[in-house]
Predict the structure.
Amino acid sequence: MRWGMVIDLKRCVSCYSCVITCKEEHFLPPGIFWNRVLVSEKGKYPLVTKHILPVRCNQCKEAKCVNVCPTGATQQREDGIVWIDPNKCMGCRYCLVVCPYQSRSYYSDECEYFRGKGLTPVEKIGKQLYPHIKGAVEKCNFCMERIDAGLQKGLKPGQDRDATPACVISCPATAMYFGDLDDRGSDISILIKEKKGKQLHPEHNTDPSIFYLDY
Amino acid sequence: MIQTKPYEFMTKYTPQREWIEGGGIFICLAFFTIELGGGTFVFSSIFDSLVGMVIGFLLTGLGTIFFLVHTGRPIVFYRACLRPQASWISRGVIFISLFLILAFLHICSYLWLSPYTALMIITNIIAFMMMIYAGFAMNSVNSIPLWNTTLLPLLLVVSGFWGGAAITLATSMATGSFTAIAPHIEEYIRILLIIFMFILVVYLLSIRYGLPAGQVSVKEIIWGRGKALFWTFVVVLGVAFPLGVVAYSTTSGIEAISRILLAVAVLCELAGDFTLRYLIMRNAFYGPLTPV
């Protein structure tokens, strides 16, 4: 089993729902993004094209971050999800430097969203439900808590909302799909095959688990 | 710090920041002082300079402190040696720890035992391993062409030895052993300086004609935001001035050179060495994620 994602770039409208939902789901501190939507332009007026690219950790099969971590904080599960144990992370940021996609964030500055005004009720709840450790590195983990909880209830990730990553279910344009890459009959495997899904910068030899359509 | 909007992140060639901006400067300092400490210890032990060995030991200790300051959670630092099979930082922590223990024992036993013992040989081997780990840690970052070359560890080791030889020369002036060892150290400095210049030129040329992100890096170092530091500290003070002093000593003999001039040459070399490392870390560019 290898969890993966397919992102259809023709459907993505850069509404940032995935970014905000991720922030909400994991109570991310200010300045920390596990999901990003990159917008770039090519050409000169009036012949300008806009390129939108939603990015997050690619959960690479050949993850360089796993190899370089000196403390063993960055680990890869059998289902392919690369996750960080923040209690083991010493914050050397070697993983952050070595990631070719720069999908990691270093939590250095513990501050509230409204500086000087104290924590909002949501932030207070977040500190209890999903505490972030200052001085550690963090990143997208494909909402592994949702996947694990869903599997325990007999749900299917990618099909049942409660077992699927938050960004995937929040997308109003249904531009994202989630499933098992090792299952040739899964929706995402069929999509990758039929629509020739491409990985981001395959020259880095990381074998990412996220494929893009119409890249 | 370069301010970018969140949606512009990695849409252009982006410099690495975590190992140079803010608290990240401490890892640059750590790599520099540890390599310098290793080089100083090696040369001081070869030329029988106890003061030099102590300085090498202290520099390595200082580098360790810098590394601890850089980490976000130093309380978990003890875990850093757990993965030597895969992580160069793990290997480096092991080498540094071994070096500090062995160097301390060697320095303590120096007064009672012969200076050239098996302990000295093993300590010097560990010192060399300690000097190479930083270069290989950076070399294993495939996505930064400026770092992903075998010439980088070679460049850093040679500059570490060069700096170590220079510090050993400076300590010989302070301890009164200048006449005995300076002519010999000066030969090593001459050779290391020439090798350093050669490797630096080949390194910059190989990156300049390599991958696009590497080309951007070299352009920024030589003609871009790093040009003032590069031409002033690296080329003029770090290479040209010591080269002039070495050329003069070759013709007139090192003892004919004023001690103050030699001390200034040592300081210039160290400043140039650190500045080069700083520029290599500050102008390490990633290729953009979006199509260029």
Chain A is about 25% helix and 20% strand. The first helix of chain A runs from residue 17 to 26.
